[in-house]
UniProtKB/TrEMBL annotation:
It comes from the Bacteria. Residues 81-262 form the RNA polymerase sigma factor 54 core-binding domain. InterPro entries: RNA_pol_sigma_54, RNA_pol_sigma_54_core-bd, RNA_pol_sigma_54_DNA-bd, RpoN_core-bd_sf. Gene3D superfamilies: Homeodomain-like, RNA polymerase sigma-54 factor, core-binding domain. This is RNA polymerase factor sigma-54. Belongs to the sigma-54 factor family. The gene is rpoN. Keywords: DNA-binding, DNA-directed RNA polymerase, Nucleotidyltransferase, Sigma factor, Transcription, Transcription regulation, Transferase. Residues 276-435 form the RNA polymerase sigma factor 54 DNA-binding domain. Pfam families: Sigma54_AID (PF00309), Sigma54_CBD (PF04963), Sigma54_DBD (PF04552).
Length: 438
């Protein structure tokens, strides 16, 4: 083996800081981009951020805001607050007459709950840690289980549902009996066995099931401190003379510019460090402005391409989505597929069909009887309509749905695909959709 110094030419793709920032900004939603710009302004004194002028709201949604000065919306006064479960329960403890020791024990018990409201550990362990006997522990838990929300403090799903049933104004004792003695059989839908054991009809067991479906199996989750996500459509797709126009909502994002007040730093040649600092910050502002402009142009290009492909869907009430992939749009506007993905994720458009995420307008294809393509989204829409109108005493099996699509829509789909689409739509199987006559 010989050692030495050699020259070798190679080509490699290097991502510049400017390109990296442009890609970074493209994946942001309008809300996230606004937050990012404001954060940058805190770090860069040369970045001038101005809120965009307010324009008259326009939306295809059912809610249309009138002149806010004459007709203020109740939404304008809304203030969202989310107390966590522990705080909500501790407020209720204050209403009880308890000794200091009991308050401490109660607080310990409350902080031993999971976020979904269930007791995190066995009561025996908690009693041992608190230095109390099981009888005292059961009394504490019994009181806690009387708190709001109903079902809190349960040790398992069965107890959680029973606690909620016991709180109903019109108690259903059959439902309580079913959950107490036949929980496992009921979950496995062995309703005939239960009806025979209790000497009731299948229709009555079905009513029990309907009631239990209204209960909350995780009562604590309504107090989980998740931030409220606001959707701001960045595009507006508007019908115009038989075609579609795509507009960018410019007023969603702050206007970014260069703060001229600090440009004097560049003229102060005596202070080299200040001059270099100003140059660096000006370059950052210029990069940000260019990245935001590129982001706008890309989103509009992608939106226009999608509108061309899905024209029938937007213009016709009964129009169906056509099969469309990220690659098709990428090839059409000459960008990488990942760019289209970033430009459509968490980006929304206000359309004649309502506010829609751009990503949802892409759909895989299924071949119909004439060799033409049908989108999976259209098949799901047909399935929803068909199942909604089916005979609930004799619900359609997946095989019958396959046959209906073949006959009525000239579309061939496998039974496995139908089962997959059902799961994605949250529609149970035919056996679970079956209703019994009263």
């Amino acid at each position: 083996m010989q050692f030495g110094l050699y020259q070798q030419q190679t080509t490699s793709l290097v991502m510049t800081q400017e390109l990296r920032q442009a890609i970074h900004l493209l994946q942001f939603s309008a809300v996230e981009l606004t937050s990012f710009i404001n954060d940058q302004a805190l770090d860069n004194p040369l970045l001038d951020v101005k809120e965009p002028p307010k324009t008259e709201d326009f939306s295809y949604s059912t809610y249309t805001r009138a002149n806010t000065e004459d007709h203020p919306s109740p939404i304008d006064y809304a203030h969202v607050t989310r107390a966590n479960l522990s705080d909500h329960l501790l407020l209720q403890v204050q209403e009880l007459r308890l000794t200091d020791k009991q308050k401490k024990d109660f607080t310990y018990l409350i902080y031993s709950l999971r976020e979904d409201g269930y007791l995190a550990r066995p009561l025996e362990e908690l009693c041992e840690e608190l230095g109390i006997d099981m009888e005292e522990g059961e009394d504490l838990l019994f009181t806690l289980q009387s708190f709001d929300p109903a079902g809190v403090g349960a040790r398992d799903l069965q107890e959680c549902l029973l606690l909620q049933l016991e709180r109903l104004e019109n108690r259903n004792f059959l439902a309580e009996q079913v959950l107490t003695h036949f929980m496992e059989s009921f979950a496995k839908r062995k309703w005939k066995e239960i009806s025979l054991e209790l000497s009731v009809s299948l229709a009555e067991i079905q009513e029990v099931n309907d009631l239990i479906q209204t209960l909350d199996p995780q009562p604590g989750t309504q107090y989980m401190s998740e931030p409220v996500q606001f959707v701001k459509p960045e595009l507006r797709i508007v019908p115009y003379e038989g075609d579609l126009l795509v507009h960018l909502e410019d007023d969603l994002i702050p206007n970014v510019g260069l703060n001229r007040h600090y440009e004097e730093l560049l003229k102060n040649e005596a202070d080299f460090e200040a001059t270099q600092y100003a140059k660096q910050k000006i370059q950052q502002v210029q990069w940000l402005m260019k990245s935001i402009q590129q982001r706008k142009q890309t989103i509009v290009k992608v939106g226009e391409a999608i509108a061309r492909h899905q024209k029938d869907y937007f213009l016709n009430k009964n129009g169906a989505l056509k099969p469309l992939t990220l690659k098709e749009i990428a090839d059409e506007i000459d960008v990488h597929e990942s760019t289209v993905s970033r430009a459509t994720t968490n980006k929304y458009a206000d359309t004649p069909r309502g506010v829609i995420e751009l990503k949802s307008l892409f759909s895989s294809s299924v071949q119909n009887g004439y060799g033409e393509s049908t989108s999976s989204r259209s098949i799901k829409d047909w399935m929803k309509e068909l199942i909604a109108s089916e005979n609930k005493q004799k619900p359609l099996s997946d095989a019958k749905i396959v046959s209906w699509l073949q006959t009525e829509k000239d579309t061939t789909v496998s039974r496995r695909a139908i089962a997959k689409y059902r799961d994605e739509l949250g529609i149970p199987s035919s056996s679970k959709r079956k209703r019994f006559e009263k």
